[in-house]
């Protein structure tokens, strides 16, 4: 472990530039994943609407309608959190770009252990943690609702 700290102590900001560039890309990935998740949730709602329109069975249509309500509630909650998360990520990305600009000016300065850990923490650990928590927050409810929608789709296919 002491070798790591010895290596970190000698790193310049120029040598950490790749980490910073990757970190900015990771912040952009968080925003992109949120957009993809939003589209996936809308896809669930569309699938449920299409299935409900084809069902002649009153019980199955009621199940599809209840699923639509659950999806709308899930989508509202996701969008509420998503608006905040996107705002935070954009702010963090602006700070990251400003940090990259500052370290570009000081690229020959030695970052030291504290600077290296700060760059690694802010540009790598933070966006990965945000990305992981955002996906974990959406994954469970999405999978559960998707399984229910598939079941209704199968019942609609069996009837048709």
Which SSEs are present, and which pair or pack?
Blueprint: H1 2-9, H2 17-54, H3 58-105, H4 112-159
Query: What general form does the structure show?
Result: elongated
Helix- and strand-based class?
A: mainly alpha
Uncertain runs are: none
**What percent of residues adopt helix (DSSP H or I)?**
over 70%
Structure explained in plain terms:
The protein has 160 residues and is mainly α. The termini are far apart. The chain is elongated and about 70 Å long. It contains four helices and no strands. 89% of the residues lie in helices and 0% in strands.
Descriptors for this entry?
single chain; about 160 residues; mainly alpha
Q: What's the short story on this structure?
A:
Helices cover 89% and strands 0% of the residues.
